[in-house]
Amino acid sequence: xxxxxxxxxxxxxxxxxxxxxxxxxxxxxxxxxxxxxxxxxxxxxxxxxxxxxxxxxxxxxxxxxxxxxxxxxxxxxxxxxxxxxxxxxxxxxxxxxxxxxxxxxxxxxxxxxxxxxxxxxxxxxxxxxxxxxxxxxxxxxxxxxxxxxxxxxxxxxxxxxxxxxxxxxxxxxxxxxxxxxxxxxxxxxxxxxxxxxxxxxxxxxxxxxxxxxxxxxxxxxxxxxxxxxxxxxxxxxxxxxxxxxxxxxxxxxxxxxxxxxxxxxxxxxxxxxxxxxxxxxxxxxxxxxxxxxxxxxxxxxxxxxxxxxxxxxxxxxxxxxxxxxxxxxxxxxxxxxxxxxxxxxxxxxxxxxxxxxxxxxxxxxxxxxxxxxxxxxxxxxxxxxxxxxxxxxxxxxxxxxxxxxxxxxxxxxxxxxxxxxxxxxxxxxxxxxxxxxxxxxxxxxxxxxxxxxxxxxxxxxxxxxxxxxxxxxxxxxxxxxxxxxxxxxxxxxxxxxxxxxxxxxxxxxxxxxxxxxxxxxxxxxxxxxxxxxxxxxxxxxxxxxxxxxxxxxxxxxxxxxxxxxxxxxxxxxxxxxxxxxxxxxxxxxxxxxxxxxxxxxxxxxxxxxxxxxxxxxxxx
Length: 620
Description:
Elements lengths: L2 H18 L7 E2 L25 E7 L31 E3 L6 E4 L2 E5 L6 E6 L13 H14 L1 H6 L3 E6 L4 E6 L7 H4 L8 H4 L25 E7 L3 E6 L19 E7 L2 H10 L5 E4 L2 H6 L4 H4 L3 E7 L6 E6 L9 H8 L4 H7 L6 E2 L17 H8 L8 H4 L12 H15 L2 E4 L2 E4 L7 E6 L2 H16 L3 E6 L2 H9 L5 E6 L9 H5 L1 H4 L13 H11 L4 H17 L3 E3 L1 E2 L2 E7 L2 E2 L16 E2 L1 H10 L5
Parallel strand pairs: 2-11, 18-19, 18-20
Antiparallel strand pairs: 1-4, 3-4, 5-6, 6-8, 7-8, 9-10, 10-11, 12-23, 13-23, 14-20, 14-21, 15-22, 16-17, 24-25
């Protein structure tokens, strides 16, 4: 962010309480005014005349057994979302595709809040309706809030400070908060997905009462642009665009959601999914995560003929923290010195050179790519915040810049493996007979990395090899996607690779990532099992930050505390989106750089589809 933009954002944030309180607003923002202002008409990159029609084919690895994504049990089908509405439900507001921390109207046409941030009121769009023609009501919103907070770990943490939702008129819902000063809470209530109370409290075709707390394979009543047309349990789900979708002409929908049909075919492993893409017909777009495959494998006939296109989309959004997560619910990882020791054998530089074609960059922060990332030594307001907890924090946090090992020379491996052994020794572990063992009990240092695809093996193997050089017995187990999801939801693992995406305005979701309460809540994203009172306090400091400057300082402090406690072994990021796609699409020349690419703004080109079908049997 430029200096001017920072000043503008600070000025905007400081003025929120005075100038925006108790006024109705359409577009909402947590950082600065949206580039569209309050008069949002449509995204500036879309083709407002994009044709509707065609089929978008996708492949999903694994299987599914539920159409209820908001509970821990079951594996939701493609098209559903654990947070948000997916293809079937609309939310109160819609998060912008081309700006961070901005939302535009969807089910709600406007919202307001008082200057002390003690509540928020949302006003429904009178046009909003369910697919059965019934209107979306304030009762639907109140009921949705209640059941989601009771059953969804994500929504429970996200809306922890929201005590109740009350219908105050036939179009307005007021959300009450148990604390004042939670500056982002009025805005993020727009992320609430709205569910049909009358449908969920009704009965199915057999007369059995539906239960929102249980998995189901009954296609649900929705409100969004798509509904389930057909499915084969565990292997396929087909979504059909709703021809009379109530929101089709809303600004957030113009030029988007153009495919008549979206088909998701389930395949059990990544290799089979890759083969399906190369043949055509089952997967139209391949988001590529493998550097090796991107560099070497796109040489099959359709690529050479120009019928499959490789394209790189640069992104400007925050970079995720991709890392090996060390599960502190296991006694083996409860010592910070041990966790630090495990960081040193990860040789990113050699991996990047030999495996990733120098396409990746090492991750050094949980808030990489933003002004929220900590750096150098703590100072100013960040230091003031951290001083309160000095006796509970690693002393190095105040005197050393956090740095990860850099394998930039042949002697680096010896240097860093020795540092790892020294840290293990301080923690009570020694090498005997070539094995790292507990000095008191003789128990070996042994753990398992849990994965679900071949990429896990690529990432883990070099780390495992270096760990074995210092006697640590690390192994990798690859299991199917369904088992993997269930085990992660129940924290049944030693180590996993997780990808944690942050925003430019962190807030209430941090509880789900780091809080002590979330550590004991199945389905939360506190994968490390962190139970640290300082982290809890810093999360609250972020949530109740008084302005942007205070938020940045508090986030710097949290980032630094997380890093110095070595809860994860950071891996890497790539500031681009790689997409390969069958040349059957039209798309706007401009794509939103914040997201990289908005596939919802693409459309099927009948002439291109016809040409491909004539050349490739699988596309007929």
